């Protein structure tokens, strides 16, 4: 008798356990149901089919018009949360900045960037905090020309490596990863921005004329321009600002969630990819007058800047992981542009006019122009032509 009771009790026990776990799942469900709204999805691939064939930031803007400023997309197994309004972007990048301070993972990036021991792709941890602190210190010193200002970032890192005050030791691979950051972060971003700016200047000849007049007035008679002269060029700065509004080099902010949080009444699950559609914010008619027109004057007498406080305009991101190369990027773009506009007059190739220039972006997640920009340059001689 006793022997028969044992299996019976065991089965009852198993049933009881499954009942309790079902109940627990049931209790959790309401929270789960508070995931942000989603479009229709397919088994296995989830929402991937929505992103096929068009540029992701364009598709995501169109979906957001339908599903709202916080959306949940399942791209394969991974949850991606897309934020598309100023209010939500502000809340996510201020109140919840720490919760979404991780970067999105990919095997390619992990290999290229020495197991994420750079700054840009590192998860948010003690190593990132230490390296970022030194990078910011170096950037500030360079600006102010203070201690470290004359030093190369490589010298700084090598010296830091020998220091005994380090919280996390630095290896040679870490240094290589950070140098790689500087190369990748510092070259293609600035050249993409220059490319878009020149294209917009060609499409808007009155803006080109105004920018060239400012430069040629400021440097009247000079045969070369020094880097420090560029600060005078107020209109050129507005032109570059406007170019970054319409063509952010990183259209989708790449963050990931390191702890579950709630925003706009929805749950953002741990490990989800979190992205802010920077491109869509910059062209939202709710925040911008004639958003599809290139008008640098809109930034004149406006307090909107790219320092990460105006959430309709965050080409460099915001919060803890805001771009540390911001000033370098601006200098890297202003100076060569000033030289191109000072020393040359520019024309479109024969048969092309400003109204039929294409402004198509490269397929994928980069913010680059798809087609090469071909222009004819005629030298301008300040002493003769000016
Ligand atoms: C037009 C030029 C550039 C643009 C539009 C740009 C934009 C951005 C954006 C949107 C982020 C992500 C910020 C966030 O998550 O909140 C970022 C991060 C970063 N950028 Fe830039 N960037 C530019 C140039 C540069 C340059 C010149 C450098 C270095 C010399 C650089 C180095 C970095 C690094 C290291 C990070 C990662 C910061 C971190 O994760 O803590 N960037 N950049």
Automatic annotation (TrEMBL):
GO terms for cellular component: membrane. GO terms for molecular function: metal ion binding; monooxygenase activity; oxidoreductase activity, acting on paired donors, with incorporation or reduction of molecular oxygen. Heme binds at residue 323. The keyword Membrane applies. The chain crosses the membrane at residues 6-24. The keyword Chloroplast does not apply. Gene3D superfamilies: Cytochrome P450 (1.10.630.10). It is a single-pass type II membrane protein. It is found in: Membrane. Pfam families: p450. Its main location: membrane. Its cofactor is heme. It comes from the Eukaryota. PROSITE patterns: CYTOCHROME_P450. InterPro entries: CYP450_71D, Cyt_P450, Cyt_P450_CS, Cyt_P450_E_grp-I, Cyt_P450_sf. Keywords: Heme, Iron, Membrane, Metal-binding, Monooxygenase, Oxidoreductase, Signal-anchor, Transmembrane, Transmembrane helix. Belongs to the cytochrome P450 family. PANTHER family: CYTOCHROME P450 71D8, OS08G0105600 PROTEIN. This is Cytochrome. It comes from Forsythia ovata. The lineage of its organism: Eukaryota, Viridiplantae, Streptophyta, Embryophyta, Tracheophyta.
């Amino acid at each position: 008798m006793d022997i028969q009771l044992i299996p019976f009790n065991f089965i009852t026990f198993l049933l009881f356990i499954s009942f309790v776990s079902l109940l627990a799942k049931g209790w959790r469900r309401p929270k789960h149901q508070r995931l942000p709204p989603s479009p229709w999805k397919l088994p296995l691939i989830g929402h991937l089919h929505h992103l096929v064939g068009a540029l992701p930031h364009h598709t995501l803007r169109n979906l957001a018009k339908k599903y709202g400023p916080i959306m949940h997309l399942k791209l394969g197994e991974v949850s991606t949360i897309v934020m598309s309004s100023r209010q939500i972007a502000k809340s996510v990048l201020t109140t919840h900045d720490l919760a979404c301070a991780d970067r999105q993972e990919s095997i390619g990036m992990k290999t290229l960037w020495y197991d994420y021991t750079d700054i840009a792709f590192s998860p948010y941890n003690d190593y990132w905090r230490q390296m970022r602190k030194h990078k910011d210190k170096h950037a500030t010193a360079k600006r102010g020309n203070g201690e470290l200002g004359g030093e190369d970032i490589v010298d700084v890192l090598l010296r830091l490596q020998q220091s005994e005050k380090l919280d996390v030791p630095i290896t040679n691979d870490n240094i290589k990863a950070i140098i790689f950051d500087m190369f990748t972060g510092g070259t293609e971003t600035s050249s993409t921005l220059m490319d878009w700016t020149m294209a917009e200047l060609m499409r808007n000849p009155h803006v080109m004329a105004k920018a060239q007049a400012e430069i040629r007035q400021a440097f009247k008679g000079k045969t070369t321009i020094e880097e420090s002269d560029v600060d005078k060029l107020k209109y050129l700065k507005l032109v570059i600002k406007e170019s970054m509004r319409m063509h952010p080099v990183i259209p989708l902010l790449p963050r990931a969630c390191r702890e579950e949080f709630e925003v706009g009444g929805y749950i953002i699950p741990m490990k989800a990819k979190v992205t802010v559609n920077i491109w869509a914010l910059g062209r939202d008619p709710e925040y911008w007058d004639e958003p599809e027109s290139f008008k640098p004057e809109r930034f004149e007498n406006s307090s909107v800047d790219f320092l990460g406080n105006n959430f309709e305009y965050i080409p460099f991101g915001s919060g803890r992981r805001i771009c540390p190369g911001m000033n370098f990027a601006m200098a890297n773009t202003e100076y060569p542009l000033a030289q191109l506009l000072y020393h040359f007059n520019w024309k479109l190739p024969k048969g092309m006019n400003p109204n039929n220039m294409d402004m198509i972006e490269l397929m994928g997640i980069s913010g680059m122009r798809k087609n090469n920009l071909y222009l004819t340059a005629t030298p301008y001689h300040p002493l003769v032509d000016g």
